[in-house]
Specification:
The protein contains 2 helices and 14 strands; from the N terminus they run ββββαββββββββββα. The protein is mostly beta strands. The protein has a domain at 43-169: Sandwich (Jelly Rolls), CATH 2.60.120.10. Strand 1 (2-5) and strand 2 form a beta hairpin. The longest helix has 6 residues, at 32-37. The mean pLDDT is 94. Keywords: Isomerase.
């Protein structure tokens, strides 16, 4: 497993180290000790899967407030997504900056999303499946969100979103949005 920090402190891309032979390959997707050594939170309390019918489906930007803030490990197991994180830690030098990466079934890359980050993804193909390992169970009262198209954040999506839930489309824009990740 190869852990590569992103430009946003505390976040990382996780790539598999394939052990291949004539049968195929074997790879470790998660290792508690390697996460600890890389300064990443290794807790997994919940595992989720999301299926999306159409390319251009956008989910997010979501986060949860403390004490229910989530750390996530996000992997695309079918199709392709553009995965985006936004740093919501006011003390961070990367506060309100975003980072995006293409996660696909073929590249097998995962995004490590630290607590106090917002997360979203846009499907790039039809029939996309995304799996999440999450450090904290979903807590509806702690859920918050930012608008995916907020000009104050300025995310450059690779294709135009065509399907966004009413909830995700109605999150407020900054500065009206209360960024209270902690």
């Amino acid at each position: 497993m190869q852990i590569t920090p992103t430009p946003l402190p505390g976040s990382a891309l996780i790539d598999l180290t394939l052990r291949e032979d004539d049968r195929g390959f074997f790879a470790r997707m998660f290792c508690r000790q390697e996460f600890i050594e890389a300064g990443l939170e290794p807790l997994v309390e919940q595992a989720n899967v999301s299926f999306n019918h159409k390319a251009g489906t956008l989910r997010g930007l979501h986060y949860q407030l403390e004490p229910n803030a989530e750390t996530k490990l996000v992997r695309c197991s079918r199709g392709a997504i553009y995965d985006v994180i936004v740093d919501l830690r006011p003390e961070s030098p990367a506060y309100l900056r975003w980072f995006g990466a293409e996660l696909t079934a073929d590249n097998r890359t995962a995004m490590y999303v630290p607590r106090s980050f917002a997360h979203a993804y846009l499907t790039l193909t039809d029939g996309v499946e995304v799996s999440y390992q999450v450090s904290t169970p979903y807590t509806p009262g702690a859920e918050r969100g930012l608008r995916w198209d907020d000009p104050a954040i300025g995310i450059h999506w690779p294709i135009p979103p065509v399907l966004v839930s009413d909830k995700d489309a109605s999150w407020p824009l900054l500065p009206e949005a209360s960024v209270e990740a902690r």
